[in-house]
Amino acid sequence: MNARCYARRLGLALACACGIAAAAPADDPELARLGQRLSAIEARPDAAQFGAYERLRARQAIDAAREARSRDRAWAVRIADRRVETAEIVSRTQLAQREIDRLDRERSELLVEASRRDAERARAEAERLRVQAQIQAEEAERLRQAADQEALARQEAEGLLDNVASQQAAKLKAARERDAELARQEAELLGQSPAAPKPKPKKKK
């Protein structure tokens, strides 16, 4: 008898545990992929120091998307994707800028060294450095364009956030107006209900 009671209780506990596990929402695969992209930036020792602010905003956007309601989830996931992309662009841009600075220092050192050499070798070295500087200028222009694209992506993400906030505010205002109208109609209905008849006064003897 005790063994059967124990088995029944164990079965009920397992059923409840399975029900809870089925009810718990699994993480959105898209959000999981965005989290992995963000973690990949933070895992690189040469890029982890760049774009800290953008990574923070991307992490917050991912968390907000996880907590968003079903009707707002698509917008929230899109915003999180844009913020992760912005963090990636900023990290790559700043990493490339550091490499440009390193190349500039090397070029300056080479110029100093070239001044100690003879004229012919110095001219050959200067030509090489001129070509290298041109390549660096082209790289800097490419990075500038990437920074402009990052700024545009950031503005678009901000616009999406403002749009979502405006939609939510409009929905909240409409809901409040409906509640106020229902309350007014209810008050009018209560005010128009017939009053209970008053008892007739008894005649004095």
Structure keywords:
205 residues; mainly alpha; 5 helices
Largest sheet: none
Low-confidence stretches: 1-8, 10-26
Q: In one word, what is the shape?
A: elongated
Structural class: mainly alpha
> Number of helix segments?
5
Straight-line N-to-C gap: 82 Å
What does this structure look like?
- By secondary structure, this protein is mainly α.
- Helix content is 82%, strand content 0%.
- The chain contains five helices and no strands.
- Helix 2 packs antiparallel against helix 3, helix 3 runs antiparallel to helix 4 and helix 4 runs antiparallel to helix 5.
- The longest helix is centred in the last third of the chain and has 74 residues.
- The N terminus is likely disordered.
